[in-house]
Design goal:
Helix 7 runs parallel beside helix 8 (220-233). The chain is built from 15 helices and 19 strands. It is α/β, with parallel strands linked by helices.
Length: 470
């Protein structure tokens, strides 16, 4: 059998398939044993010590050249991402290009390192806050963004003088390996390595290995395990977890335009995004019109392979996840939610892991559809009478990642900015973040310093107070 992507050799392997056609094998990846993984970590430490001695300006230049090379191969990376993840090619390419734009912010940070002078409390002293590279960063990526998630970890890590060992999802490893290949032209050997290992082996590295930080993106249950493992090793943890993101639709001069933004944020990547809007909290007098527009737009979407240009919605990434989305949505329907659109798969999973874009009405706040992260193309509509109720529902979940308000009332906007219990807060648009803004959540949506932007330095460096007597 011919595989598009093959890395490593050995009998113990992961094989990936095309979610749009599960009979098509895409990649085969050898799984490292414990000795191989230990050697990877040791080589990373050696490479990191060399890289930390490189002046910041030179690090920024080499990082910039690497990002340019990634951008030049955006089509290749996007094809790999679509073949293994399932999302539309245009979304995969957009992911690759956005990751480069985010990474370029780190280029400038390499020269600054977050250091600062600070006033002295004693005569004859000068004080500084210094920052140093943390060391080897173990990076655990999910399957939904196989290009941008590793890039979001690689770029700041290298800017600040660290080495990176990447553990990709077994469903979408190709992007990680391609990025590591591209990097070899620009950085010391072994500065960026891919460790294709099991979750158990990754836990051992985090809890006992010679690593100095762990950056994890994924589910809340797995994130809690990573956090506990990091505590055993007393290393820094950066966790980006899930969300049950809400958009409050209170009033709008352009209701259809607002709904267009909401449905785009809900169904991009077939809803398999931590920042996807999965709840619309709509004022009751707008509910009927809102549901009508949502249903019409959902029913107009065409399911199809990500590499077909006329597809509007690709398949879900893998069979276990497809099964879970089907089961969770059915639980919501059994609980009383009404499927106004979709609510089922269009075919058998062997014909592709597709799920119809779904709009659920009659959703109660404390129900499955109101509380659980479905992580698929499922959008719940909840209705409210007062803005107090809207805010109570918005904040009344375990999550705190992102939220949105559509309103022309300044008093409500200011209240939303003050009271939304989310790490990222949007007004009158969907949940697309800027390339230079911190990305992260609160509550069960995240722990530690945010990624992207100026605050990433707080994770990727250690802090030192320096006092110099003159």
């Amino acid at each position: 059998m011919t595989f598009r992507y093959e890395y490593g050799s050995g009998e113990d392997t992961y094989e990936t398939v095309n979610p749009a056609n599960p009979q098509e094998k895409i990649g085969r990846y050898a799984i490292m044993d414990s000795d191989e993984l230990s050697a990877v970590i040791e080589r990373a430490n050696t490479a990191q010590r060399e890289w930390a001695r490189v002046p910041g300006l030179e690090r920024s230049q080499r990082l910039d050249a690497f990002i340019n090379a990634v951008e030049e191969r955006a089509d290749e990376l996007a094809t790999a991402g679509t073949l293994e993840q399932g999302k539309l090619f245009r979304e995969s390419k957009g992911e690759a290009l956005k990751s480069c734009s985010e990474g370029r912010f780190s280029v400038g940070e390499a020269a600054r390192m977050g250091a600062m002078a600070i006033a002295s409390g004693r005569a004859g002293f000068s004080n500084q806050i210094l920052r140093r590279p943390r060391g080897v960063i173990f990076c655990i990526s999910p399957w939904n963004f196989p290009i941008s998630t590793p890039m979001r970890k690689i770029c700041p890590a290298l800017a600040f003088g660290n080495a990176v060992v990447m553990k990709p999802s077994q469903f979408t490893p190709a992007g990680n390996f391609l990025l590591a290949e591209i990097s070899r032209e620009f950085f010391p050997d072994d500065l960026i390595q891919v460790a294709m290992v099991s979750g158990r082996a990754a836990s051992e590295v985090v809890s006992k290995g010679n690593v100095h930080g762990v950056s994890f993106t994924g589910s809340v249950p797995t994130g809690k395990l990573v956090y506990a493992a990091a505590a055993q090793n007393l290393i820094q943890a950066q966790l980006e977890l899930g969300g049950k993101n809400g958009a409050i639709l209170n009033d709008s001069d352009d209701l259809e335009g607002a709904i267009t933004q909401i449905i785009g944020a809900a169904f991009m990547t077939s809803g398999q995004r931590c920042t996807a809007i999965s709840r619309v909290l709509v004022r009751k007098d707008l509910a009927a019109e809102t549901k009508g527009i949502l249903v019409a737009k959902a029913n107009a979407m065409k399911l199809g392979p990500g590499l077909e240009v006329d597809s509007d919605l690709g398949p879900l990434c893998n069979l276990p996840h497809w099964t879970n989305v089907c089961a969770t949505t059915q639980r919501a329907i059994n609980e009383g939610a009404t499927p106004l659109a979709g609510g089922c798969a269009p075919n058998r999973p062997e014909d592709g892991y597709y799920y119809r874009p779904t709009i659920l009405g009659d959703v109660q706040h404390n129900s499955v559809a109101g509380q659980e992260e479905v992580f698929g193309p499922v959008l719940s509509v909840l209705e409210y009478d007062t803005f107090d109720q809207a805010m109570e529902m918005l904040n009344g979940t375990e999550f705190g990642l992102t939220s949105s308000l559509f309103s022309n009332r300044n008093d409500l906007v200011q209240r939303f900015l003050a009271e939304s219990q989310n790490g990222m807060i949007h007004v009158n648009h969907g949940t697309v973040p800027d390339n230079n803004m911190p990305f992260g959540g609160i509550k069960n949506s995240g722990v530690g310093a945010y990624s992207v932007g100026p605050t990433a330095v707080n994770f990727y460096t250690s802090e030192h107070s320096a006092y110099v007597a003159r």
